[in-house]
Amino acid sequence: MVWGMLNPVHFNITSMVPDAVPVATMPILLLTGFFLLVWNYEGSSSIPGPGYCMGIGPLISHFRFLWMGIGNACNYYNKMYGEFMRVWICGEETLIISKSSSMFHVMKHNHYISRFGSKLGLQCIGMHEKGIIFNNNPDAWKVVRPFFIKALTGPGLVRMVTVCAESIIRHLDRLEEVRNKSGAIDVLTLMRHIMVDTSNMLFLGIPLDETAIVNKIQAYFDAWQALLLKPDIFFKISWLYRKYEKSIKDMKDAIEILTEEKRKRVFTADKLEDCMDFATELIFAEKRGDLTKENVNQCILEMLIAAPDTMSVSVFYMLFLVAKHPNVEEVIMKEIQTVVGERDIKIDDIQKLKVLENFIYESMRYQPVVDLVMRKALQDDVIDGYPVKKGTNIILNIGRMHRLEFFPKPNEFTLENFAKNVPYRYFQPFGFGPRSCAGKYIAMVMLKVILVTLLRRFHVQTLKDQEVCVDTMRKTNDLAVHPDETSKFLDMIFIPRNSDKCLEC
Fold it and tell me: pLDDT by residue (tens digit) across 76-87?
């Protein structure tokens, strides 16, 4: 009887299953399909790169940039996915390119003249739509760029030779200020002082405390580098960015004091031509209403920090390379003696120093300081067959490209890499096109003057008890490639050329 009672029930239930299951599982199947679609979503892009993975991909790629630094992250992703690939930064699609043809396309077109970075971060450091370096407003950038071009070319370029030579001679006469107890020279500090002094004499002309400004510039750069790609939530937590905020305020306050002093001198000068320079031109533009006071201050700040940020570290690397390659030093010194001799260097000598120029180029290729360029697409485009949408961020990984294409010995430091003319599409230490570095010509003049003046007077050596060279030196690779300044082995020995000790070298 029991079986008789159960059998009909069993029959009724099993007969209902085929009809009920499809109805019950349909929402589950649809939901599962949706999640699988999202998991594998890649924005319908044909560009190689990590998967979207329900939004986890963009979070991981952004975190990698914050954790590893911009330069290291770019090298990681190019090595992983190829020389034209895609990630996300701050949730925005970002291309990382280390391919010369693609770089050439981006640099030469006007629709890639905007920068990208965290809006709140750029506002915090004062660069959002102000200054020239990371000004991401093309119209505002076009207003200030002519002031920089005028100051960094023409008469300013000629005057740089004398001003820079005088500055380095003054500082070399005071080496005790940067010499440690063992007699070694803190080259980075020395170069930063020279760069600040030279920039001030050329572009501002106000007495300043070099040591204080150099320290403030370093702290400002650290803040700039730290805040450039931070997500918006970072700026909601005040204790996280408070230390950076203080560094930025200290630098801005120092520049404001100097600029106010300049304003007073400009408007009380008996002869205006005595104080005509970059800062004066900006102050007159402010008086005409062409620029705001904040923009004037930011432009002066950026002009003063540019060389200590990059040029000082470039010279530091170059001196280490000279110390480790005596054959290169020998040919450089021979050329200096032939072209300049014992007299002061002149503007006419600059173009004749071809060996020194090749050394500078090879140093910047082999161990760059700025090895990437950040841009944003202002309109839809196609680069090497890949569609690029308006608003896409782009990072040009120039340092990697310099190791991959054209050069006969890309992984060696040798002047052979510049024995023949190098097409500019394969070598871009300053970029080219409408947003190339405004100071690229004056930078080369400055580098030649510093190296000629210093090397003619001193033979340079690294510390003998440590086999430290550019390759083995600990570095950070974020916004720029800087040596790890916590290392004890970055100082160098300067030996006077006319000393007995130098003759024994």
Answer: 999 999 999 999
